[in-house]
Amino acid sequence: MSRVKLQAAYYHQPDKRLRQTQDKLMAAMRQSFRDGQQFDTVRVTEICKSAHLARQTFYRHYSTLGEIIELDMAWIINDFLKQTDQKVDSTHYAPRLMVKLMEQHQTSFAMVFWAHEETAVIDYLVRDMRRVNAIRSTNSPVTVAAIRLYAHMLIDFARLMLDNPQLDREDFIGIYQRLMPAPESIFHDD
After folding, report:
1. Is the separation of the CB atoms in 110 and 163 below 8 Å?
2. What would the pLDDT profile of 17-28 be if each residue is shown by its tens digit?
3. How far apart are CA 15 and CA 6, in angstroms?
4. CB under 8 Å to 8, separation ≥6 — which residues?
5. What gap in Å lies between CA 121 and CA 123, rounded to an integer?
6. Between 32 and which of 37, 61, 83, 116 could a Cys-Cys bridge form, CB atoms 3.0 to 4.6 Å apart?
7. Could you give the CA distance from residue 108 to residue 37 in angstroms, rounded to a whole number?
8. What is the pLDDT of residues 98-112, one digit of tens each?
9. C-alpha dist (Å) from residue 108 to 55, 96, 142
10. CA 165, 167, 169, 174 torsion: positive or negative?
């Protein structure tokens, strides 16, 4: 996110006006997505008109339309971090929380793929996980590589959920538990 000023830690309250602007722009983007419009045909003018915002407001906060989706994902990720921090054994609860989060935000995750913003979201995930890891440990090259792989796996898992609507929540939790590493195995240097 080049221009978006995100207060990354979940315990920071985002600027109220920025949040309102973001919500309006995201609603307009969701409508374009639901209408089946190809992302590369969506224009800033059209989104601003639908959101009842001036183009100048958009450009004050964003450089690209993809950044609207990135910021939405950042807030979703921060909500997940807040929920896991409130659990005594986050490793035990992480699979359920992650599957629930992805179910609740299916449209947002689908929009990441629609806008081809996977790399930007993975980069955000890596930065945020490295920030959290730096509190507990060092960010050795091996740990950074593991964090990057984990971020890729999370995005791939979101795609798996979207591509397999015939599976239910328990199926996805089982898959997550079998294939995704426990956070402790990633966030601690040996």
Report:
1. no
2. 888 999 999 999
3. 9
4. 74, 78, 127, 128, 131
5. 5
6. 37
7. 15
8. 899 999 999 999 999
9. 23, 19, 31
10. negative
